[in-house]
């Protein structure tokens, strides 16, 4: 079940197996590991019926020799983060107090997936982090109201690092072909690195956020700060490109998509070529020193230099020693307040789309109150103060009153990231996933991709977090991130695919939790 999209489509089109058998295999795999990893919150009860319908459509098109007219994801099971609204029998959604609510239509991304022929197999667990602060003794690394927290598959008790940990785990160990996720503050970049998958975070506006529960959707005066983006997680760069191709595009229900600068969309799949590094100018970021200790603990500078040497040998030009002298460490309190304000403004608008507002839920403060009174929430008093901050700020603050904080202006000015790209004529920047997550969380007009690269050796110590989960241990995967400027995703796919082909790193890191079922166990060739 580690197959690529092209392998799955070849098998389906040839009649070697069916979409129904894929759904059955993936469902069994989820059932086998989910009690331990808790990556998936719900399986689509209609997935089997949908698969049968799509199999019948494929049979008809095969008989007419018209298989090429099928959608690119026809009959392919996909997982989505459970912040996406779906107009089906999977209740919405991940936030406490609105579970079980219904929506009148699919979110735009889900609608695009269905148009491409995909089967929404289920929804992955969302672990709310940055919208919930750590005032309560910092004992909960990530919070979720549906069961316990997601665990990674590469060592016992692994922290998956981010709200999209369920998406990353699901893609990594083959609980579906791939998954669709969202990123505000590293929620794609970091879990992808931790779970040995490719994570792609596009420029804000390339994909629609309509009917995905918002955390930070509004536009700052600089059009750069704290913006949600819908991206992909897959086992290969090309599969991430296929999925991005299916979900990208303008949407009148999300005005940000009007920022897309091209009428003919780039072919990200065609960009996946083995010579993609040739002629590229790639900068190596050595500043942001406060991050270096945490970054280099997992992936040392020497190991990173080896990756740079591989790129040089592939005829890329490496511009070493890029410095962002204007960027300083972030004031987490002010960042939290801005994020909380975003959430408080957007959450009521999201509720307006529901056919019925559940449990008298009208605002962020209502959500906080319900959560803290919920008797079944083991962490009900943990990390809800951000929702309290939000309504307090509503009284005196508006989106137009949110100036760029001085300590973050350095990311934007002549000493910042965009200036470094221009000054050094860069196509991309290579850096650690931690740093990529930080930059992306402060600038909506950049894009990033994380590619598997290394793992920690058996000599590395086990490092536990305060809540008993394990942050680092032998066999921990670690990736390299590439960043580029606004709507330069095509360059990133070129670079990342070529780098992936050089390293073949994903195949060298094996999870310790592996589902037993394989497609061959269900395979019965149809006559």
Automatic annotation (TrEMBL):
Any Pfam family the entry gives: Amidase
Domain annotation Amidase: ranges: 22-299
Record InterPro entries: Amidase_dom, AS_sf
Gene3D superfamilies per record: Amidase signature (AS) domain
Name of the protein this chain belongs to: Amidase domain-containing protein
Organism: Hypocrea atroviridis (strain ATCC 20476 / IMI 206040) (Trichoderma atroviride)
């Amino acid at each position: 079940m580690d197959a690529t999209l092209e392998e799955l489509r070849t098998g389906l089109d040839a009649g070697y197996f069916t979409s129904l058998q894929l759904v059955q295999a993936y469902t069994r795999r989820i059932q086998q590991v989910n009690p331990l990893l808790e990556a998936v919150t719900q399986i689509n009860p209609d997935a089997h019926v949908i698969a049968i319908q799509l199999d019948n459509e494929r049979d008809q098109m095969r008989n007419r020799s018209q298989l090429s007219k099928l959608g690119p994801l026809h009959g392919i099971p996909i997982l989505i983060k459970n912040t996406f609204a779906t107009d089906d029998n999977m209740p919405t959604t991940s936030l406490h107090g609105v579970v079980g609510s219904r929506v009148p239509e699919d979110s735009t991304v889900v609608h695009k997936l269905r148009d491409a022929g995909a089967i929404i197999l289920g929804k992955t667990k969302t672990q709310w982090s940055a919208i919930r602060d750590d005032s309560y003794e910092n004992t909960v690394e990530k919070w979720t109201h549906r069961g316990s927290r997601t665990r990674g598959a590469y060592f016992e008790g692994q922290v998956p690092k981010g709200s999209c940990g369920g998406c990353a785990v699901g893609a990594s160990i083959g609980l579906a072909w791939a998954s669709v996720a969202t990123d505000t503050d590293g929620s794609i970049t970091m879990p992808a690195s931790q779970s040995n998958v490719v994570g792609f975070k596009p420029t804000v506006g390339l994909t629609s956020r309509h009917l995905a529960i918002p955390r930070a959707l509004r536009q700052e005066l600089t059009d750069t700060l704290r913006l949600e983006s819908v991206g992909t997680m897959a086992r290969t760069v090309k599969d991430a490109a296929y999925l991005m191709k299916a979900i990208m595009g303008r949407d009148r229900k999300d005005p940000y998509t009007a920022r897309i600068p091209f009428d003919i969309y780039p072919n990200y799949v065609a960009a996946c070529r083995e010579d993609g590094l040739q002629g590229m100018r790639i900068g190596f970021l050595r500043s942001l020193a406060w991050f270096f200790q945490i970054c280099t603990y997992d992936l040392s500078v020497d190991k990173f230099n080896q990756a740079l040497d591989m790129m040089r040998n592939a005829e890329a030009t490496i511009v070493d020693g890029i410095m962002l002298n204007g960027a300083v460490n972030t004031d987490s309190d002010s960042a939290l307040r801005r994020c909380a304000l975003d959430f408080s403004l957007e959450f009521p608008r999201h509720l307006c789309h529901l056919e019925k507002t559940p449990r008298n839920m009208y605002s962020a403060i209502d959500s906080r109150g319900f959560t803290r009174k919920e008797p079944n929430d083991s962490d009900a008093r943990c990390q809800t103060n951000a929702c309290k901050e939000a309504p307090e700020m509503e009284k005196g603050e508006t989106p137009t009153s949110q100036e760029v904080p001085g300590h973050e202006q350095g990311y934007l000015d002549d000493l910042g990231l965009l200036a470094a790209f221009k000054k050094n004529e860069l196509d991309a920047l290579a850096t650690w996933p931690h740093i990529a997550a930080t930059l992306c969380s402060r600038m909506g007009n950049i894009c990033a991709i994380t590619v598997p690269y290394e793992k920690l050796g058996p000599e590395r110590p086990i490092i536990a977090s305060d809540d008993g989960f394990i942050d680092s241990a032998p066999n921990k995967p670690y990736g390299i991130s590439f960043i580029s400027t606004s709507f330069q995703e095509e360059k990133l796919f070129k670079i990342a695919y070529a780098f992936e082909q050089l390293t073949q790193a994903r195949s060298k890191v094996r999870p310790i939790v592996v589902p037993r079922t394989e497609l061959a166990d269900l395979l019965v060739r149809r006559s």
